[in-house]
Design brief:
The structure is a homodimer. The first copy, chain A, is α+β, with helices and mostly antiparallel strands. Chain A is 38% helix and 21% strand.
Chain lengths: 418, 418
């Protein structure tokens, strides 16, 4: 009988327990780092009113890639392509009652209707970290440091990644000084910069033409350009003085979103085989005012799960999964199941993740099953073990076995599991 | 200036950090209990191919309430209204390579286009727990015990909730014995049972008519009915013998989904003010074969966040949130920010969730800010504290203050925070 298709919808992923265990262990590590810095997680529905993404503040490419549809009541709904507009909406909604500044983060899924390809999915997970309510200065320093600390918490060193930083205010001043005064010309130039890494030097030279803001930034003879350049260089120098020594100025960093107003940055793997940015972020002081009221200054960054997991795997930094069962209790016969379950309770009470077999296979097959599942310890428990008060624990990776008194099993396993 | 609307899309919720902290602390407690029983979390995208919900196995009321739309490539997509079909799809997809039985769970959002009302949202969170690959027997016992253990892990006692259990096989046999042989008649009778609690005794009496399977079950004179009744009563007796003493037979339990084939159960608050079922589940041995291949027996249950949180609140069992900052470091002046951040590092390294103030308000305002945020401890750190190596920690709930040596602060706070 031919049944329904078992593939997931095109461009999204199924996470089997092994995959989800790996990813959720990483997310929990990220949560731990962020909460130690006083950041608190917020969440919202992926369903947002479509109008939120249709205002001028948003990038065309995002608008063209949304999942937007009409609900049964005729309301236009969009599956959020990114979190920052939702954050701005929520901040605006309770701006009168909340204590500022806010240190917020969110880990969740985002949706983009893209042609599926390596590293580009229609649904991906993103961590968004934002500091809302303080202008440039200490907030910018903290946010960039935090991005670096997240990577370091997995064991990355400052040789493994580089933080490239620029300033939208500087780019704006340079465009003006270079004579690019119309919004469209500026936009076209930014798009060119964004694409530069994919062009040859000759192609870029030909495309950038005479009025080149990059040269203006390099010369820094225009007073406004010089002032903005000094500001961003001072920020970088402070970061370096505080130990973030892998940050450098890069006038070619633009970042895709229109809403950035100040510092922008990207973090890249130093391994050239992994060219996509790991983290991206910047200051966006005007976004909250899209929802009315005075602007509220904000700075933040985001990173996606695919590039981040690639980075951890490439550098051999993936943490051990913290969710898989730790011990397998086999049963000599199915009649022993209640005894095994009852004994399992003593391990669960000690916080040990305990898998009790409840089927009718023989013990040898149960040991093989434990190996196949990657569970490190095995023992059988039935009427004989109950009578003798002794169990034989197999350490499956080493093919070793030892006899332990029943009332010492939980303690002994805790010791073995570290 | 009138800006964009800050309300979320109709029928969904924004989770501010306080709300999410409460909910995620509860979810993590659930994860802990389940993983101690060897259950592992899986996840999938909320986007599923619409055809999966359009087969006969699914309840009309669910099909009528889905969010279904066409993507930009003309594919019909549904936002999952429940998780079980996705579970069945994933199990079917890898049935040849996975070791059975599977103990799986998933905590995530589900979507239904309902008229928003108290307790009925368009997006809600649901925990789905499933044991796949063993027939009725120990697997059923474990799953029902586990539902009970989840409630007990929050401090609920068996007086706080009741487990009502029935059997679809028994209901089927009783319908047959009562002469209800056509599928529509059976369906109509089950819908009637499902609505019974909302009807008066007279209304129910009038509606059920002569051929009443409930009477057939009570009498149990039909041999098939008697056999099925004995099976479910034996299951209940075993549960009671193993300490699940608040389970009882209830021939009126049906459960909404068509795919159940054996035992079905509901858990209700014993407080009559909270009449909606907290948990619901049962055995569904045929669902995986919708995707082709032989049937794989399975049993599971699910519960939604709204009724569950209501239960915890009503019984005063909500755990303390584990995500909010634990200490607030104030700064005498903005120039002290780097010193405060650096000192904050020593607390973060000790695992303390540390909020460092980085603005320009006076210390008194910072103390008030800490109180407003609900952070229990406050101290200021600046050049003076650095010089004296002493800090004054305020215990904000008690309005007490004590001087602690700088290098003892982390240890002291760890002690205070338990």
């Amino acid at each position: 009988m031919k049944g329904l298709d078992t593939e997931p919808y095109k461009g999204v992923r199924d996470f089997y327990p092994e995959d989800w265990g790996r990813l959720s262990t990483v997310f929990n590590r990220i949560r731990e780092v962020l909460s130690k810095y006083g950041y608190e997680e917020y969440q919202a529905s992926p369903l947002e009113r479509a109008e939120m993404y249709e205002s001028k503040g948003n990038e065309e490419i995002i608008r063209e890639q949304t999942y937007t549809f009409e609900d049964r009541g005729g309301r236009r709904v969009t599956l959020r392509p990114e979190m920052t507009p939702t954050l701005a909406r929520m901040v605006a909604h309770k701006r009168r009652e909340m204590p500022f500044p806010l240190r917020w983060f969110s880990i969740g899924n985002r949706f983009r209707y893209e042609r599926p390809q390596r590293g580009r999915l229609r649904e991906f997970f993103q961590t968004d970290v934002d500091f809302v309510g303080l202008p440039a200065g200490e907030a910018d320093l903290e946010v960039v440091t935090l991005a670096s600390e997240i990577l370091k918490s997995f064991g990355a060193t400052s040789e493994d990644f580089v933080i490239r930083m620029n300033s939208r205010a500087l780019l704006g001043a340079a465009c003006k000084a270079a004579g690019l005064t119309d919004a469209e010309g500026v936009k076209a130039y930014w798009l060119l910069l964004d694409k530069k890494s994919k062009m040859s030097a000759e192609e870029f030279e030909a495309a950038r033409g005479d009025r080149d803001p990059l040269r203006v930034i390099e010369e820094a003879s225009d007073p406004e350009v010089r002032a903005e350049k000094e500001k961003i260089e001072a920020l970088i120098a402070t970061l370096q003085a505080r130990g973030v020594d892998n940050v450098r100025f890069d006038p070619e960093i633009v970042r895709g979103f229109d809403y950035y107003t100040g510092m922008v940055f990207e973090i890249n793997d130093t391994n050239p085989e992994n060219p996509r940015a790991l983290f991206g972020g910047g200051r966006y002081d005007a976004l909250v005012s899209m929802f009315g009221g005075d602007p509220i200054p904000a700075v933040g960054f985001a990173f996606g799960d695919v590039t981040f997991m690639d980075f951890l795997e490439t550098h051999n930094l993936l943490p051990k999964s913290e969710t898989a069962p730790q011990v397998y209790i086999g049963i000599p016969t199915i009649e022993d199941a209640p005894l095994a379950q009852e004994f399992g309770e003593t391990l669960r009470d000690a916080g040990i993740r305990t898998f009790v077999y409840l089927g009718e296979r023989e013990l040898g097959a149960q040991v093989k099953d434990a190996v196949k599942r990657g569970i490190p310890y095995f023992f059988a428990y039935g009427s004989q073990e109950e009578k003798s008060s002794m169990v034989r624990i197999k350490h499956l990776a080493k093919s070793e076995e030892e006899s332990i008194e029943e009332n010492q099993v939980a303690k002994h396993l805790k010791g073995l599991l570290g």
